[in-house]
Protein 1
Amino acid sequence: MAVATSPADTAQPEIEPPPRWLKKWWTAIRPFALPASTMPVIFGTVLAVTIGGGTLKWSLFFASLIGMAILHSGANLLNDVVDFREGVDRRVNPVSGAVVRGWISHREALLGGWILLMAGSSIGLYLLYRVGMPVLWIGTVGITIGVFYTWGPFPLKFNALGDLAVFMNFGILGALGSWTVQMGSPSWIPVVWAIPMSLLVVGILHSNNWRDIESDAFVGITTVARLLGDRRSERYYYVLLISPYILIIMLILASRLTGIMPRMPITFLLTFCTLPMALKLIEKGKERHLPEHPQDFLALDGATAQLNLVFGILCTAALGLDAFLGSLFD
């Protein structure tokens, strides 16, 4: 079914000369966003070793990490295909847009996306063989969310469920799955402790949808940002970037006041080193109508992804530092 175009969208983007094969596909898979999916895998693995007391299985860790990156890349390509076909993407953004630029056709992106999903699923089958049925259930939920994010009769992204989808896939399930791969069984620990970084992943998506409120509304796509509108989207972005720090404090205190074990290490306060980054991004969002630099708001999703990466690294470092300090006093 043809999709109408607004006057602003009738002018097609200028087609740039295609770059070399590697660059155009590198742009297509949006590598700047991959830490959103791979960081929870690293975090869940280190969590299993330091808090769960598991023995690090390197081959399973690398399989989980590579598999997640491949699945995420495949989902990105399929997402671009649907967005372009439905008239959502008609503007070239600073850090993505190989289909919109005309570097690859939507058919090439579709084929590449399904190839990557099959390759990632094959790695999942290897993990299933090595670990057992718990991996199957976690992987099945994750792949189902990934496929139906933009596909099917009720695409999650187009029906205000995209935020929940990325919260689960690129946060909770990533940490839970990697813990399960290492330990052999699931646990509540990675689910709860991964919530702060999962909220930052939602911040990446929301900053993208916030930027695209008008174009999404024109083609009939409903996102959380569109439901909230511009002003409340600003507040929502503020909550997504500040609440992880509040949750870190709450989890540290709650585990000590209630006696629930294990206790979240005080070293997680390392994450507050990223608070200035978060506040700077919030300011960029507030100044979206009169930005200091023209690309500030357009590239807010990429900048939020950088915050998520550093925050995740510090969460993982907090686990390692706690284990190191603990070994000194044993």
Note: The first helix runs from residue 21 to 28.
Protein 2
Amino acid sequence: MERRLLDSEQDAFRDTVREFIRREVTPHLDAWIADGVTPRDFWRRAGATGLLGISVPEEYGGTGISDFRYNALLVEQLCRAGSLGLGSTVGIHTNIVAPYLTGLATPEQRQRWLPGFVSGDIITALAMTEPDAGSDLKAIRCQAIPADGGWVLNGQKTYITNGWNSDLVIVAAKTDPAAGHRGMTLFAVPSDSHGYSRGRPLHKVGQRESDTAELFFDDVWIPRDNLLGEVNRGFYHLMEGLAQERLSVSVMAVACCESILESTTTYVRERQAFGGRLADLQHIRMTLATLATETDIARVYVDRCIEEHNAGALSALDAAKAKWWTTELQRRVADECLQLHGGYGYMEETTISRAWRDGRIQTVYAGSTETLKDYIGRQLTS
């Protein structure tokens, strides 16, 4: 089915992203995966190409484009190039952290942080998850206590994407523990703050080029001018950003499905078995037919979500539906296509094995499938 979401301007931007990936990503990706981190030079090259400041106002060095189609194309093309890990790490910066800095930051804060954000000199992260609080944000224990015209932050965060490379981390902390989720506040914490430290880089099953770390805060003093948004409104600020975060994950999921299906279709056309091509076997064709149909339907839904988001009308409910469905589809597409590759698909150097490994976490972060289904069910029955 013809995709009608994009026009000539987005097509041109997509060409720019593809050329950047061809030149700056593909030749180095295997090395980054082996190292478990993407080097800082990548960020600066992406910034110089104009890829990190899509939604940032021009006065801070960005392009000032509020059209999410551009954000979607960036992470989509990274995924289609075989790096869901880069889609995730860049997506955290451009699609998830950016709205907090452009929407909640004061003019002074924007002037302080956004030029570096755009150039790639400031890498950002969002620190919500804790050892005992994942999808259940209300359970976080990280706490900030008022002191000396600011706050003193103590606690731990874990599984933080960009945690190792990050220069500025948005941290969710309790400022009124007795108030539950109504007592949560967001702070922008520079990584050179006294008392801030990183634990060991976390070694993941997949997305190894995307650095992930534990973060520790031991009496970190946060000045008042590093408060992001309103005191005790942090939970609501986070909820406002969830629709775009889940949409970004959905975009990556569909792009991965499409890429996996393209490479698998090529493989079964060329692979000889039982006296002919794998593609000549009815079971192979029916498997691909099912997965291709479901992927096309997912693409239409996600593209419609992008249109709704651009119009300011994407609901949290519809974003949750998109996220759980597309990521579960991605998991199934990767698993069934690996099966079609046979033993070859289980070799670490193959693109299908990488897609299978990298995609597994997609059903967990940004709201697990179980959490989102429960949320959707409650909305339907309340």
Note: The longest strand covers residues 150-161.
Protein 3
Amino acid sequence: MSLSIIDWWALAFVVFIGLPHGAFDAAISLSLLPSSKKTLRYIMVLIAYLLIAIGVVFIWHKFPSFSLTLFLIISLVHFGMADYSANPTRFKWVHIIAHGGIVTLWLPVIHKESVAEIFLILTSNATPFLWNALSVLTLLWLVVCVIHMSQIWRLKHQQTIALELVGLIIIAWFIPPLATFALYFCFIHSRRHFVFIWQELQSVTTAYMLIISATLLSLASWVMGAGLFWYLYQQMAANEAALQTIFIGLAALTVPHMILIDFIFRPHSKKLIKNRHILNG
């Protein structure tokens, strides 16, 4: 598979604009820890984060097709939860599936030929079961989208959510898959994450510390990614090495990132907000 100039730019955007949104995880972890023995517990959290990421890479190496399938499911939930949290609607999981499925279901199916080549590079073998599953799930996803649209279009303050969904579906149809993924990942998902974390953590740390923390972790990720790319480049073409480095690397980081954000930090943040309302009420 050869990558176009647009594809290379899309991958660069993912690495240098999208990837740093997860670099706030260190500051988030620190904010959740009690003051006693904070340094030791922080080190343990970072070690656990790293071990989970390494475990994902190991599992991907042993079971690539299974790992890719699981990565798409995890990404659907993670992307959808971020979109729902930014603009919540009445039916949570309808919203999550509709928005999270744009780049995880709709995009692969409508650009099957191009995405199949990417999947082949990521798994080193054909994935007929995955494609059959994607076809069925995409039909179900379209039904969910119709339900979602019917729920929110009549409400004026939620029409922008419907416009975003329809706009991304149309954009994905006309723009190459890597460019569509980069557009969504960098300028919708990552932007929303930046805004959410910035608002939530300003009360417990300074902007300077947030920026320093994110910068240091981003640099560390880029250095490790460059090392992995160089290692893979000795064994395969540059485009294949780049795709494996970026997407398997994203999978490795997404699992601990999702555990921290979606299952620990968001519930913790909602609980704090609820408690403030009770105290103020």
Note: The radius of gyration is 19 Å.
Protein 4
Amino acid sequence: TTVAEHEAWLKKFHDKMTHLLGRMPQRVPLEVKWESEEAFDKFTRHKIYVRSEESYWVPVYYFVPHERDEKAPAIICLHGHSGIYPYIREGQDEAERKKTAELSLDYAVYLAEHGYITAAIVVRGWNETHGDQDPGVKHVERSCRQVTMNALLLGMTPQGLRCWDAMRVIDFLHSRDEVDGERIGVAGLSGGGTLATYLPILDERVKLVMIAGAFSSYRTSIYAMPHCICNCLPGVMQYGDMAEVVASYAPRPVLLINGIHDRIFPVAEAREGFAKLQKVYQLLGHPDHIDADFFDGPHAWSNNKTLEFLRTHFGK
């Protein structure tokens, strides 16, 4: 009910969350490999690798608009459990390309077309990083189960480890002359939305957050029904719900995106969480920094409000 109460709660909660997200890898010097580039009408897409650990490089599709301010805002884009290709309009078959269009998965490309630098990360455990497990195992299990098991054995979590990779990509963005380091945001859908929810806790350089298909309540979503194991952050329900997680980095601008027909992240609890967050942002003097797009659709992305939200908080 007061700013002092909020700050006292925040310190305790933030410490708990950083502990729950697990031990982080040992930092190595920033190194980048530039593999390829391809020019499109409105942007150039680079394929790069950013060194995250001694023996791991993060694959990134780096989109740089042709028309932009000298230093432009940049958005880290995190994909969900369809892998990277539908998210960069590179579906390998007709079904993937159809999925991209129907669910608006290509937000990294869309935002680049509208002047924002975007970095679409191949999330650890997916596509070229999934390893050589038994090909008979389902792809989602092959992609996330082993990463989760290995991370937990090492005192880490898949969420923390994948956020670490995003943090190293932010290191890369800060090294680039075309990027405004004070205007870096994160956007994610589904499993990528889960990572977008946690990344601002670990990295204050994330100034804006767009979470799609991942915000509701732990009790009615991840706890109540089958989810990929990588969505489970051990112990988190002891300390708070999703609204508390987002409140821990208020008043940074946050846009919540939820399809009202999303069956795995129920919209009723998303609305309740949004109402709680509105009170927090009001208390902190920035009621305009929290917004929601509860759109008529399924478990998907929506661009109904993204450009307006970005213009408001990051400029044109």
Note: Strands lie at 32-39, 43-53, 56-65, 72-78, 117-121, 179-189, 208-212, 254-259, 290-295.
